[in-house]
Specification:
Blueprint (H helix, E strand, L loop, with lengths): L6 E6 L5 E7 L9 E7 L4 E4 L8 H11 L1
Antiparallel strand pairs: 1-2, 2-3, 3-4
């Protein structure tokens, strides 16, 4: 696996049951992040909005932290 994104973060979205995984290609402050995956905390199902997140090491590390 390799890293596609420069930064990946997780944030609970407005409904409280979904954690958005947001990624940034650069470390520029003006860059708008893109939600690449959503984790449903009630079922622990992951919906990949960007298929590259399935094989990106950084994204997988952030997603796996949610399951711990």
């Amino acid at each position: 696996m390799r890293n596609i994104w420069k930064e990946v973060s997780s944030d609970i979205n407005h409904n409280g049951n979904i954690i958005d995984i947001t990624a940034f290609l650069t470390d520029e402050d003006k860059e708008q992040g893109k939600v690449i995956a959503k984790v449903d905390v009630s079922s622990f199902e992951v919906e990949y909005l960007d298929k590259r997140a399935k094989t990106d090491r950084y994204a997988q590390d952030i997603i796996n932290e949610i399951f711990m």
